[in-house]
Amino acid sequence: MTDSTKFFLPEDRLPKAWYNLAADLPEPLAPPLHPGTGQPLGPDDLAPLFPMGVIAQEVSLERWIDIPEPVREVLRLWRPSPLVRARRLEKALDTPAKIYFKYEGVSPAGSHKPNTAVAQAFYNKEEGVRRLTTETGAGQWGSSLAFAGSLFGLEVEVYMVRVSYEQKPYRRALMETYGATCIPSPSPNTAAGRAILAEDPDSNGSLGIAISEAVELALQRDDTHYALGSVLNHVCLHQTVIGQEAMAQMEMAGDQPDVVIGCVGGGSNFAGLAFPYMAEKLKGAKVRCIGVEPTSCPTLTKGPCAYDYGDTGQLTPLVRMHTLGAHFMPPGSHAGGLRYHGMAPMVSHALNLGLMEARAYQQTECFAAAVAFARQEGIVPAPESSHAVKAAIDEAMRCKQEGKAETILFNLSGHGHFDMQAYTSYFAGQLTDPAFDPAALERALADLPKVAGA
Ligand SMILES: Cc1ncc(COP(=O)(O)O)c(C=O)c1O
């Protein structure tokens, strides 16, 4: 035990390999299926969208996958990221629990997203791709890919969910600073966007729609690929630098987490922190992993596990995941990065195998937790990350009630410096907690694709 507050690893302790949970799962993941034939996908089916380096990782069962040196070189701009003990928060809560957070907001884009953006840009560049299309919710992923594209000399075109485009104008400016183009989605540029606009010219947009637009454009040009900021196995894989570093830093602190927490949108920051701990859990370690989502988009807590499309326009492969249905339209909350109808197949599988728990919170209680955290620890959390903050505080209060000195580790996946309008609305009492509409879920689930034998 030390009385330090921050735990830093030197640059040469940046992990040399990514950890692949698929190698250790007691039951294999269900294969992704071709959207046309319903048959398991082969690498060639994915080649129009992704580089082979990434496709190989998507299906790999190797436990460790080397991180290419040019990727490590870029990650060293901000990694290893700090682990911080939230001593002032502990004191303010008067809890016997110890609270640590891994802080991913130190990256250039302000979140964990560049960990995979850099890797994806590298593999695309290696394969001779010139242009990448993508979607973004709150803008964290779009600005991360824009940043990575600028380092590897790739053009980047980002379709940003309209409600976030309007809420976060400076995210767009950041993407443009890195040389990318940012377009509000749904847009008239694609058939998928035009179809939505014809039905609802004022559509808020959703990640599912923005993905359709980006995928449609990538399929049209040989020099263009698509990049996804979450959900897929390779994205979760790239994020495991977070958990590996955290393990080494917890060792420096002379402590071990009893509870590991991350917010879940598509599942990648949670996976990045928790998967290395799940590997220990599979070997018998006692650690609880908790994924936290918004009650307005409760994929893990209310969605069944089924084969579904990753996008609204039904262009992507079918993957088996917890889903609210590809046509589910979440209300326009401020945690834009958590407004996704599906969940990473790996995270979905981990939940089904009992390796993790899931819970959901309303947005106003998350903002209250984020403000309490900021007033003790100084960092203003991204609205997405505030879900993890809320769960960490609730766990610390449970420890207080039970008189237990447990150790809680959570992922502070990003800062909220571009999200201050959300805080302003919160302070003005303008944020509501949209009621979850079970009928809307039922309607969206009625459209789930019928997959034989699934
Ligand atoms: C700061 C932050 N945290 C979390 C998320 C959720 O994504 P994921 O579940 O893939 O980590 C996002 C997505 O945009 C984000 O910007």
Automatic annotation (TrEMBL):
Annotated pathway: Amino-acid biosynthesis; L-tryptophan biosynthesis; L-tryptophan from chorismate: step 5/5
Pfam families found in the cross-reference section: PALP (PF00291)
The keyword Lyase appears for this protein: yes
Domain Tryptophan synthase beta chain-like PALP: 77-414
Catalytically driven reaction(s): (1S,2R)-1-C-(indol-3-yl)glycerol 3-phosphate + L-serine = D-glyceraldehyde 3-phosphate + L-tryptophan + H2O
GO CC entries: cytoplasm
GO molecular function terms noted in the UniProt entry: L-serine hydro-lyase (adding indole, L-tryptophan-forming) activity; pyridoxal phosphate binding; tryptophan synthase activity
Required co-factors: pyridoxal 5'-phosphate
PROSITE patterns, per database record: TRP_SYNTHASE_BETA (PS00168)
Keyword terms of this UniProt record: Amino-acid biosynthesis, Aromatic amino acid biosynthesis, Lyase, Pyridoxal phosphate, Tryptophan biosynthesis
InterPro entries: Trp_synth_b-like, Trp_synth_b_CS, Trp_synth_beta, Trp_synth_beta/beta-like, TrpB-like_PALP, TrpB-like_PALP_sf
Enzyme Commission number, as recorded: 4.2.1.20
EC class name: lyase
Family matches, as Gene3D superfamilies: 3.40.50.1100
SUPFAM superfamilies: Tryptophan synthase beta subunit-like PLP-dependent enzymes
N6-(pyridoxal phosphate)lysine, modified sites: K113
Task of the protein: The beta subunit is responsible for the synthesis of L-tryptophan from indole and L-serine.
Similarity remark: Belongs to the TrpB family.
Oligomer and partners: Tetramer of two alpha and two beta chains.
PANTHER family: TRYPTOPHAN SYNTHASE (PTHR48077:SF6), TRYPTOPHAN SYNTHASE-RELATED (PTHR48077)
Protein name as it appears in the record: Tryptophan synthase beta chain
Organism: Roseospirillum parvum
